[in-house]
Amino acid sequence: MSIATAAWLAYAAPLAGCVLIALLGLGGERVPRRAAAWIACLAMLVAFVFAVVVTVQLEGLEETSRSVRSVAWTWLAAGDFHVDNSILVDQLSAVMLLVVTGVGFLIHVYSVGYMQGDREERRYFAYLNLFVFSMLILVLAANFVVLLVGWGMVGLCSYLLIGFWHQRPSAVAAAKKAFVMNAVGDIGMAIGIFMIFRQLGTVDYIEVFAGRAELGADTSTINWICGLLLIGGLAKSAQLPLHTWLPDAMEGPTPVSALIHAATMVTAGVYLIARMNPLYSYAPDIQHLIVVLGVVGLLMAGLIALTQTDIKRIIAFSTMSQIAYMFVGVGLGAYWTGIYHLTTHAFFKALLFMGAGVVIHALADQQDIRQMGGLHRWLPKTSLAMWIGTLALAGIFPLSGGLSKDSILAAGLEIGNGWGDLAFFGGVAGAVLTGLYASRLMFTVFRGPPSDYAAAHAPHHTEHGEGPRTMLYPVFILAALAVVAGIVQFPGLSHVFSSWLEPVVYGAVPMLEPSASNDWIATGVATAAGGIGVIVAAIVWGHGRSAPVSFPRPLAVLSERRFFWDELYHYAFYVPAAWTAVALRRFVERPVFLVVPDAIGAFALLAGRTLAPLQTGLVRAYALAFALGVGGLVLYFMVQAA
Amino acid sequence: MTTPVVQWGALAPDLILLGGAAVLLLVAVLFRDRTARDIAMLVGVGCFVGSAVAVTVIWDHGDGVRAVLDGQFVVDRFANAVRVIVAGSGLLTLMGAYGWARLREHGPEFVAFLLVAAAGMDLMAASNSFVSLFVSLETFSIALYALCAFDTKSSASLESGLKYLILGSIGSVVLVYGAAFLYGATGSFRFDEIAVGVAAEPESLLALAGLALVLGGLGFKIAVVPFHMWTPDVYEGAPTPVTAFMSAATKAAAFAVLVRVLVTAVPAMGDTWKPALAVAAIVTMLFANVVALRQTNVKRMLAYSSVGHAGYLLMALVSGQAGAKALLFYLAVYAATSVGAFTVVAIAERETGRAATIDSLRGWGFSRPVLGGALAIFLLSLAGFPPTAGFLAKLYLFAAAIDAGYTYLALVGVAATVISLGYYLRVGLALYDRRHESGSMLPSAPGTAWAGTCAALAAIVVLWLGIYPPDVLDWAGQAAASLIAAP
Amino acid sequence: MTPGLGSYLIVSGILFAIGLVGVLLRRSPLVVLLSLEVMLNSANLALVGFGRYVGGQDGQVFALVVMGVAAAEVVVGLGLIVAMERRRLVLDTDQLVELRG
Q1: What is the pTM of this model?
Q2: Which A positions 559-618 lie with beta carbon below 8 A of chain C?
Q3: Of A17, B209, B465, C5, which is least surrounded by CB within 10 A?
């Protein structure tokens, strides 16, 4: 089987699953609801198998020819301009393909247990498969139009899944918020793509990358293009300043948070910049902007995570913070480090979300960590798995998260200039914060005496074990992956990941890979930083949730209110918009729109009275109009000739 | 005097339809009620499928162009493409009409009329002279008059039939008059011979007057402003399955023959008719879409929408070969969309027992997911949203107009499309109005399963062509090339 | 003196006008159908006139075809009127205004 065929099949499997579930839905209650769940899982398994086939075959090719472009058909052709439905399979998309289908499969299996008994289970699995299909469109796209299609479709699926429990007003509001923010990003991206088309007359990746010299390095054109594309990336990846939708998105089912808002969709911005590296290498100013936004974002999100009380929102802010690390990596030009962290993050963050899902199930949908505590006695396996995820998140050597985060910091050291230092020191500070908030969560939830609520609910819900096997096994598999995944890129020993991705850089700038010594320094410092965070957390919160926490007052307020971003948007956009609307209503709508229609109506009445016979359904009036029309036409032709 | 040779093969797609109609008249005598209807449906479906299959068989005969019956007809790929569109519309119409109560009494007659109308449309698209044009036009027109008045229990249906008959006859008279003038000026009814005469004397007043009258007569059939006034009334009053078929197939056949007349008979007068058509396109696009905004009856709104689409299509007539290709693609898409939309409206009417209005459709999409979803897709396609085929159809049409130097037409087209969102989206939003979600679910109307299949099929076609257009585009391109040489 | 083409066309035009005025002014569907026949026959006269002028039989043949078609049309028209009569609808085209707007 050729690589292209396998890739197309991987791409088609989730779509087939979605269609099949929708068709079964027509059968009504005759078809068991569980069927949808297993179809969805099967589709994902098929996709994953083909993804593996693609990767293995790609590995078998010469390093220089590991880029397969396959055109299924031309969707639009006008002169030289053409838009194809095409896919590009290369080292980068293979990694994404594996992550999306692999982690996606595990989360699908987890969902089987998690969504059991939900009345709208079928709709859920259809959406979930559709989401994976959309995500594959995004990562396999070979041109900007298909990319934009995928970009919009994942946003749509995210909207549908955040608002899945549409009886909850908060879920609907969160879905809308995510949709609007993402629409802002989509528009930015669409304008960027349009600029590329205007400048180069093509939307095909390879042609655009080949023609990037026409855009010039460090010109305002390329800066605009990269900046506009970045807006799309920032919105999709919930980065400053378009991040406020992500915590609210936790209104969706927990597996959705794991799949879309941790492992795959929110990392699309990182993938975008890595994919567009030939363009971004020409726009150093934008790259610096990415680094700055990343460093500020990772610190800010880490601080916010420290004081949140909703288990899923803490993990959501952690996600934002970790994606900020990835942005720092790609912003520094060390594109592979961003993708590397993306991959390991997919493992340990999906693990944490799914563990949180087990906890939430065991506590009858309780998400407030103040109502938890001491859960270790009821959920020992979950606790262990989540500790692995937490330590990986905190960047402890040699867990996967540690190695991948260190590679970003090492890249900062390697560059050595001010931007590199900013990335390094910001990243180390962030690592301390990560250790703190991640461990705080764990201590509060699992250690100490249980809260009254936990004591009341947990024993009852865990009497048959910690949860269905469909939920636990994916958690264990991800825990194992979180431990061992780092092996592919071990400082000074193995370079599998970086050398695999290296040829994807088309540009003249070589892919930044830190030296072994810098790598070890970064690893040591980061592990120490993360460890300090964990230890401090152990001292402060080690005895459970009742521990007194006293941040300096302003910082605590800042953190609890999430740095006032929602308020900022409220006053910067909503309030002016509302004012404008009121003003428009008073000064434009009333005088213009309420008067003009009357005027038009009056005119229409007048015209109607004059032309009344033409409009009242009278046959002879129509005949007259027809005769006059023909007469007019004849007259016009005569006049033309004369 | 020699007897003209009959090319049976080339006419097979139409003869199959006519033969089916003849058989059905016998069935109407021999069988009754539901048996008769079911036999009629089988025969009808078989004939439409057979007609389409016959087209694929003869597609490449004579390199795609054959003069038939002593040059009275030209069966080329262009005509064959229209035959496929007509057959497809007929097929979908039959499926959608299955549950209609009237068919339990007069099924065979209905299908027979439909087949005759389809045959007339096919022949008109292949006409190469005003004689054959007139005969085939009257063949399908008379069948349609009867079909419009088919529901003799409904005064609206009778009114629609009589109005269509009276106004249509005036249109025919004008057409014959025009043909007579062109005959007087050039000495022939055949398009190719008229072209010679016109080229020799392009300033002839007689020929110009004749062309103006012909355009008036055909303009009536394609319903462009100001010859459109019958359309809303007739579409609204006619039984909805008939409206579905009329909107899709008549439009295809009439536009096809108009293109043929313009490019084979009077290309020499292009400087005169092109500006006239451009003006008509602008007026039609704007007028129809604006008037549609104030409609609340969905059928009537779709009728105005149909007039609006005729306006878009006029653009294709001035845009050469690329225009003809875009025209065929657009007509194919429009046929599926329109039949599908009217079929869903027919089901909604049957369920509630009254005309479908925006208010009566509120929240309906929740209780009828397939029909509602299909209607939403049709509306998006009519409004020209990707990934439906309506988007690509408009895109190719506008691109052809721009390439032919009619950028202003494309701009007006875009403006008219924006206006049209106002009424298409209004229906779409009403369909999924959450406030009416829990509205009591009416028992489904008879034939809903078939109509649902028809709507789903049409929706799949619309999506399929929107996502995977190359085959049909290639087919349209071949058809256009058989009629118009590349510039 | 045999009448020339102009005479044919003038008479044809007059007939056409009579027919049109009939359609526009009369309210009985029967009379409207009658007027339509007058219009069609005016077109026939023009056809025959041009046929004489151009030479050949095409014009006359077309006129015969038009007559046949007109007969078919009238059949449907009369059928419609009968159906309306059965439904006890007033036979007045001005009352056919249920559909409008």
Answers
A1: 0.83
A2: 615-618
A3: C5
